[in-house]
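Dear colleague,

As promised, here are the two records you asked about, laid out in our usual form so they can be pasted straight into your sheet.

NAME FIELD: protein one
SEQUENCE, THEN STRUCTURE:
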Amino acid sequence: MSENHLYRAAIPKIPKAVQPLWSVMIPTYNCAEYLRETLASVLMQDPGVEMMQIEVIDDGSTRDDPAAVVEEVGQGRVEFYRQPQNVGHIKNFQTCLERARGKLIHLLHGDDRVRIGFYHKLQSAFEQRPDIGAAFCRHIMMDERGHWQYLSELEQSESGILDRWLERIAVKQRIQTPAIVVQRDVYEHLGGFDSRLSWSEDWEMWVRIAAHYPIWYEPEPLALYRMHSNSSTERNTRTGENMRDIRRAIAIFQSYLPTVNSDWLAAKARENWALDALYHTVPKLIGSRDFQAAVTQIRESLNCSHSLTVYRKVIPLVLRLGKYWLKDRVVSRLQFYKVGHETS
């Protein structure tokens, strides 16, 4: 037996007779300012307490009071559970799965939203194909103020089962958590999120599910994922933990992939993440003058992949970084001399 099960908490079975269809589980941590929007987006589509469990699972928030928001917006309809102490987002997700009672589980971050039609469209997917492990829709990336930034890639033009999905999801993270619904039976079979991961645990889970079940896709963008400066993504980017965790995830799920091309798929995944950092993350960090974080991302990108394509992108970025660094040093030195001259 693989040692992977040691890092994935078991999801207990529950009597089928007491299951509602839906469990909308909302993990929160210091994001109560957005929770009103999240809850409102679900309650607008609420089919009733017999059909849908709605529960907020708070990881010991210290800067706000999600319980008050639940009471205000939920009006007794939304359940609330607070961790006795901060346990971290992986264990908080685990608590969500353990407390979920529904046949279909939707993990919806407390700062994300769903659009009208989300639950109806994805419920229809499971009705048409009861054998699928999960169904997801196209998602919209929004900023801190809720302004739409861009759409995720269109995977196929029509609703239905995705072809060769395991190979596609293995080389690139294509799903944001609020966009996907998973059968509880699947979590019971495969276990919870992998505790060895700190940032890419969702990607590893979607690959794991794709290795065992057909996956349904809904091309209509019905979920919204919020990007903001206080997110774990931003923090992990500055330290390079995002790229280190990506390498851990790929090492874990490579064994799920078809043996004939698992090495190629793993190498392609590492290259794709390296290029994503070099094309998007590093220029943004240089533009904001966060040179140390930019250097960290370049170094971690090269640790991911030594492909010629990656090196071709690294070289101009290093030159650009040197140019900005030198410019800042010169400006700083001139200001130093100017202040010294004025005070002498």
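NAME FIELD: protein two
SEQUENCE, THEN STRUCTURE:
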Amino acid sequence: MEQIEIINSELQGLNSIERLQYLANKFQGKIVFSTSFGQEDQVITDMIFRNDLPVEVFTLDTGRLFEETYSLFSRTRKKYGKTIKAYFPNQEKVEDLLLEKGPESFYHSVENRKECCFIRKVEPLKRALNGRAVWITGLRAGQSDSRSNLPQVEWDEQHQLIKYHPVLSWSLDEVQDYLSVNRVPYNPLHDKGFVSIGCAPCTRAISPGEDIRAGRWWWESSKKECGLHQ
């Protein structure tokens, strides 16, 4: 796509903050960043808020997040004095799911788990991205095999917008160094072996040597994705 090629060309030679500034100015009012309050997301949130970039920051509140995640949500708002918009799942869809299958249906099959992810995450994301031109994410190439070959700027066919991954090429050490140097608040679960943090019932700590995504939907052997990133 020609627009992607032009953006990639204009981003050459710019640092991480300058790239965000360029996109924020070019697509002002139509650029958003989705945070789940992970380490990578906190780096990007700091870049946006510290530099007063005109980028809306939002999160998907599934209703099943860790208490530590909600606490970090509050601490992040307080530190920067900025708002973070929360999108919730459709109430009736959640009520119907629990009525039909109970609160732990996701443990029973991959199909059930994907159904829960769709209701609690995918559908709210569609609402959050409606009418937007650019979606900023905290994906890193080192997070999984499926993300290892992603381009930094890509066209998202599903949502019909540009997708930008500012820390795609960063290592986990670089992410953690940034948080430390800039005194960015982060989830204390990261210090307890939780590398990738999602919903509480679907996330566990990993042991040394385990894959970085091993703690997500650990009872499955399928592709460890929820449908947000195809």
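A couple of things worth noting about protein two: The longest helix spans residues 110-129. The two ends are 18 Å apart (CA to CA).

Best,
R.
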